[in-house]
Amino acid sequence: MALQTSLFSSKYLQEEEALSQECKELICSLPKEKGWIFSHIYKYEGFWYSARHLQGVIACQKYFLAQESDIFLVTTPKSGTTWLKAIMFTLVNRKRYPVKENHPLLNNNPHNLVPFLELEYMDNQQPDLSLSSSPRLFATHFPYFLMPNSVHDSACKIVYLCRNPKDNLVSLWHFAKKLKLQATAIHSLEEAFDMFCSGLSPCGPFWDHVLDYWNESKKNNRILFLKYEDMKEEPAVHLRRLAEFLGYPFSADEEETGMVGEILKLCSFDNLSNLDINKTDKKAYGMENKSFFRRGEVGDWKNHLSTEMTRKIDKITEQKFSEVGLVL
């Protein structure tokens, strides 16, 4: 995959004024609720999007043509996307970009190396994706059933990363506070909690998004379902598992020379968050790169959620997942 150099401007952080006429007409017919970052989110096919994001989703559904070798990283927002983008880019491109040399991650935010597919289509129905050589790496927040038809009809591979909903909520709230554009957007953690539990989160409901991929992964060997907590606990084990799934297994020589550890060190939260490009630059989607890094820990929800909040969100999670055997 060639180095992705196209950058999004702050247009991503605009709202209805930048919409096409077609999208303006569509959102007028959709259920609308208060947003987290933008003033409103809109319900499309059962999931909630900002107006700008929705425009990209619809155009991508219509025009994106998948290639057999494409690789997709799918998450709900704030589920460890930045970390796994870095890992997957480094893993797949380790022959082209040796880890110990001047690696692209040292001078690029992971979001500029692995673009969000639907955001490529946000302002352009025919974006130039030619800079990406095979295999192309994309990230997305698409629910599985809303993926472009060409993805469903191809042999491309999908990696789904999910996170404990309590940590997901807390991370999403902090992120929204940093980027909130309208005075009417979300404020308190209590408000964020109530909205999240009601399914009113970006690309949510969270539980429906996760369940969609969990169920599909049980019958579709093109989908690898990963948990953020498992990867944090045993990163080397799951990096090897990821490498095998993607068709880039580690050779005996690579194992002997410590390639697994080198990739994990390069892509670690501490290393990435302390790079100059991620402390001072403002490139990824027009946002400050540092906004994509906060703590990257498991269990930070304990510092924010009350006992009552914890009990409520755990009950929802059990109700949603117990019958399918998924534990988060």
Please describe what this structure looks like.
This protein has 328 residues and is of the alpha/beta class. It has 16 helices and seven strands. A four-stranded parallel beta sheet has the order 5-4-6-7, sandwiched between helices. Strands 1-2-3 form a three-stranded antiparallel beta sheet. A hairpin with a 5-residue loop joins strand 1 and strand 2 (40-44). Helix 3 crosses helix 11. It is globular, with a radius of gyration of 19 Å. It starts with 20 loop residues before the first helix and ends in a 7-residue tail after the last helix. The model is unreliable at 1-13 (pLDDT under 50). Keywords: Transferase. Belongs to the sulfotransferase 1 family.
Kindly report the spatial arrangement of strands forming the biggest sheet.
5-4-6-7
Taken from the alpha-carbon principal axes, the silhouette is globular
**Main beta-sheet strand count, sense and barrel state:** 4 strands, parallel
Q: Calculate Rg over CA atoms.
A: 19 Å
Uncertain runs with pLDDT below 50, 5 residues or more? 1-13
Number of helices: 16
- Write down the secondary-structure element order: HEEEHEHHHEHEHHHEHHHHHHH
Helix content: 40-55%
Structural class: alpha/beta
- How many DSSP E strands? 7
Distance between the termini: 33 Å
Beta-strand fraction estimate: 5-15%
Mean pLDDT: 88
